[in-house]
Amino acid sequence: MEEGRRIYFDNGSTSWPKAPNVAEAMAGLLKKGAFNINRGNYEGAYEVEELVLNTRDQLARLFHAGDSRNVIFTPGITYSLNYFIKGFLKSGDHVLVSGMEHNAVMRPLKQMEARGVSWDIVRTEDDGTVRPEAVEDSIRSNTKAVIMLHASNVCGTILPLREIGEICRRRRLFFVVDTAQSAGTIPVDMEGWNIDFLAFTGHKGLLGPQGIGGFLISEELDGYMEPYIAGGTGSLSDSLYMPETLPDKYESGTLNLPGIIGLHAALSYIEETGIETIHNRKMELTGYFLEGIKEFPDIRVAGRPGVDGRVAVVSLDFLGKDNAETAFELEQRYGIMTRVGLHCAPAAHRTLHTYPQGTVRFAFGTENTKEEIDLCLKGLRII
Length: 383
Prior knowledge:
It is a single chain. This protein is an alpha/beta fold. Helices cover 37% and strands 15% of the residues. The protein contains twelve helices and 13 strands. The strands form three sheets. Strands 2-8-7-6-5-3-4 form a seven-stranded mixed sheet, with helices on both faces. Strands 9-10-13-12 form a four-stranded antiparallel sheet. A two-stranded parallel ribbon has the order 1-11. α1 (22-32) packs antiparallel against α8 (257-273). It is globular. It starts with 6 loop residues before the first strand and ends with a helix. 46% of the residues are buried. The mean pLDDT is 96.
């Protein structure tokens, strides 16, 4: 391997490099005054609070939500999904999920079985898609919610959220969406798609730092949810009860202010660049990679074979060689970083018929190049 060469194809795990000015914005906060909001009654704290409010506004615009007060910050999307699953569901409730879900959904639901919550996997096609009629056919009298990711972290397949949201609204079900692989890459319309709970993470397609995420919640759902975490909010400090107003109801403790400021810088970059521009660049690289893979008869592409109906995530199953060995050789020989295994989504791999061996996942960012992909294809020929 050429000394010092690093080719990063693991943007499905976390984006790298981050958006311009993210590191500088975080460092600037820490150097100039990392004052606590909702606690400090002085100018420096108010300046930080204004940046946090601006970040809420950015997220409300990005996801087409009605009010930035309904934007809640958490440590990440896994926390956000737990807030819904453990703050809303009760004994006797039933939930529907797709066959592509991440363990951020599946493990909390498994825990909730002990509390009397049941769940079913909607029939999911071999390429990771879900037909809306399959959702409708699976609804029971005690079904309370549908939880689905927007795009698969394993194979990139995009689910038909608009159509599923219409079903949820008509059948009076709450619609919960995991945007880990879609936020910042493809449009998400919370109001237009009848989404009641939209979970996001800041460090993937949003190009921000790790450790910051959150959710957006509809007014109707908020009336039924209990705060999963309780504690100090800096408001109504005379009361032992949690505030009922948003966002304080769900934001106990000290917020990750450096993370929010970094996310603010990343969202500013996305607004200036445009999601369509970002998506087109990623899909150009994805199409180039998929075309190159066609020459390998012993490599199977999991999920959809082309660029239609997917994001820039490609999973490969090496039929004549151990997937882990292949990923190791790509990194050792060529400095190519991928992710190998089950990607915290065993249900998805069962759907895609790649369980238990898993796959080698390639996820492209805008900073990748065709020259890097050419080197990867050359390496695969040798390996």
